[in-house]
From TrEMBL:
This is Proteobacterial dedicated sortase system response regulator. PROSITE patterns: OMPR_PHOB, RESPONSE_REGULATORY. The gene is pdsR. Signal peptide: none annotated. GO terms for molecular function: phosphorelay response regulator activity; transcription cis-regulatory region binding. One of its GO terms (cellular component) is cytosol. One of its GO terms (biological process) is regulation of DNA-templated transcription. Transmembrane segments: none annotated. It comes from Pseudothauera rhizosphaerae. Coiled coil: none annotated.
Length: 229
């Protein structure tokens, strides 16, 4: 079988529709109707990617809770929110909890499948050695591409898959400005709608290790760059 995708959605018709579409693409699918059922299954066996709704049964914020619990089980597992809720507050909340992507249910099936494939391509790029340097060291920063591990001044920084790739993309060429389009391409994002939120979260994680962290610079109207030491 192919990679295993978990879909957590409380509406049976919607859940079955997505499960069937994923299966047609060759993915192995595990479908769950609520948070307790999904969490019990995840503790027994992690999927390769999780697609989660926010409102689950009698838990209006159940998906947020599940995302946090799943991040406790795995820092690197790709997580996508797929929900009818489209407020900026919900999007930021989802990304802050560690989701790699946040999509609304009006997204077309081809677009959803493209977002899933993009996340898997990031994993494949590492396995295939596409990352030109297995380990990158830039001053206090150390990135281990094979283990998706980041350190700052010798302290681990827990980055999601998307966050790791964005730091990797910036740190490969210190001092060079990466436009939003370049970040989308290099970090394998399908669109730039969440780049700003991801950068804010990355900065927050490094600042938790070093309050003086300022290695990621915003270049007005152009993009971002990793400061040359």
């Amino acid at each position: 079988m192919g990679r295993r995708i978990a879909i957590v959605e409380d509406e049976a018709a919607i859940r079955d529709n997505y499960a069937a579409a994923f299966a047609r693409q060759g993915y192995e699918v595990a479908a769950y109707a609520d948070r307790p059922q999904a969490l019990a299954a995840f503790r027994a066996r992690l999927p390769d990617l999780a697609v989660i709704d926010i409102g689950l049964g009698d838990e209006p914020e159940g998906g947020f809770t599940l995302c946090s619990e799943l991040r406790g089980l795995s820092k690197r597992l790709p997580i996508i929110f797929l929900t009818a809720r489209d407020s900026d507050f919900d999007v930021v909340s989802g990304l802050r909890l560690g989701a790699d992507d946040y999509l609304t249910k009006d997204i077309s099936m081809p677009h959803l499948l493209a977002r899933i494939a993009a996340l898997f391509r990031r994993i494949d790029a590492l396995a295939d050695g596409e990352a030109q340097e297995e380990a990158i060291e830039r001053g206090p920063l150390r990135l281990d591409a094979m283990r998706l591990a980041a350190q700052w001044r010798g302290q681990p920084v827990d980055l999601t898959l998307t966050e790791f790739w964005m730091v990797h993309t910036l740190a490969k060429t210190p001092g060079h400005v990466k436009s939003r389009d370049q970040l989308m391409h290099d970090a394998r994002l399908v669109d730039d709608g969440t780049i700003t939120s991801h950068v804010k979260r990355i900065r927050r994680k490094f600042a938790a290790v070093d309050a003086g962290f300022d290695a990621i610079e915003s270049v007005y109207g152009m993009g971002y760059r990793w400061k040359a030491q």
